[in-house]
Each structure stands twice: as structure tokens, then as C-alpha cells.
Write the C-alpha cells for this entry.
Amino acid sequence: MDRHGTVVALLDARGTFFEPARTAFPGADEADWARAALLDPGAAGPGGAWRLDFRCFAVARPGGRWVLVDAGVGPADGPAAGWAPVPGRLPTALAEAGIDPADVETVVLTHLHEDHAGWTSGPGGEPFFPAARHVVQRAEVAALDRADPVREWTVAPLRARGQLHEVDGMHRLAQGLTLLPTPGHTPGHQSVLVEQGPAGRDVLITGDALVHAVQLGNPAVPYSHERDRPTARASREHLLSRAARHGALLATSHLTRAFVEPPAPEEPGRRAAEAASDPAR
């Protein structure tokens, strides 16, 4: 079990993406890929394949309660079944960490992609976290296509049970837990700052603001499935800069390492300046 202070990494699934890495991240150059290989060597698969983890994070709260950040790929009949390695193993990972789903008081959904909302329901559609409010940005719900399977799998049942809690912008969830808007990957994407005080180092749970080490090494590199690439880049650069300035550790959803160091404080700005001055990028 990978843990940093009050934050526990929970591996739901591991697999290979349906696009080669160089297709998924257009614009990255050879130096970017060399840097990525050093930062996360486990992501490099044969023939240019992208190996990735699908990870959630649990944050310990007083009284044996927990906040879960993201809900993984879900069961075999979930909406991620068309492309992700389902069923996920989150129920097993929770048990290994000594976490009862009934003790999860809040589930923060960084965004509403299938691989982050899968365990909002269990097999057959029953609620997997029966006592939890599920917190998502209002802009994320508003932008969700009516035909998106996550609407029927996640949004509609949570709303019907009174478990869907929509927020706007930066939001103080609890003492030491703040939701940070990081739009671009999706319109209402959010990341989570866990402040651990003098006893431990702060952790920034990135969601999909950062999905591959090539974006850790060079946050200007776009991802082919970002809804708004310029906005996603700005969010990523701001998030990485914030982490570096405050000495926070990054908790990543899809890198093959759960916790990684942010780049040096000047790195995002320097790389952005390089990208702006190079027309090939």
C-alpha cells in the first residue's frame, strides 16, 4: 500500500491505453520523451504503447472517516467497459487499506470521465458508497453530454438519492482539504489540495490535469483528449508551479508512480517560453 501521511493511494486498475503514447501526446519532442522515460519508466510499453495506472486516493479524516478522490474504472458493467481494464479492484484495495465503503463520507470526483466515476455505482447499479456525498463542479455536470453514459450511471442516481453535491470554483471541503478548479481536460475539472500541516508534507491530487510524465517534464505538451488544450495547459502549469512553490507532493491518477515530485519552480515558465519561441511546437 502506497501512503503519504494521511493520503493513501488505491490502485483500481492497470492497463495499456488504446492509442500509442506519441499519438496521445502530439507536439512532444525527443527531449520530452527522454525526460518522461526518466520520470516514469514504467509507462513505456512495447512498440510505443502507453502503460498507465488507474488510481484513486483516500484521505483519512477524524473519527475513522474517509474522503475518496475519484472512483476508478468501476465494475465490469460500468461505462468504462468499452476501453478501460474493467472490472477494477477498488473494493479489494479499500479492504487492504482497512477502509469500509460505509465509512467514506465524501467522494470527490475530479471530473466525469468513465474511468474516474466507475465505482459511484457497484455491479448492477447499486450505490457503492451508500453514506457519501459526491462532490463535483457544477460546470462539469452542466457540460456533460446528455448521451454520455456517466449521466445515467453516476449523475442521475446520485441526484435522485440526494448524494450529488455541486460546487462552484475553489471550495473548502473540510479542514485541510481544498478543491482547486483546474479546467481544460474537461470544463469543470478540479484537483484537490491536502494540507497536512507541520506534521507532514502537503499533497496535490492532480486528477487528469496531468496524465503522463511527458506533461510533468514539459507541461506545455497537449493531450489529444483534452477538451480545451490552451486552458488545460494553463491549469497544468499553474498547478505544477503551485506545488513546487509550496513544496507539495503530486499524487497522480495515471502515472505508474502514485506520488511524484513537482518540477523545479522555474520549470513550467521556462518550458512555456521555449514552446512559445519555437514555431515547430
Confidence is low (pLDDT under 50) at residues 267-281. The longest helix spans residues 229-246.
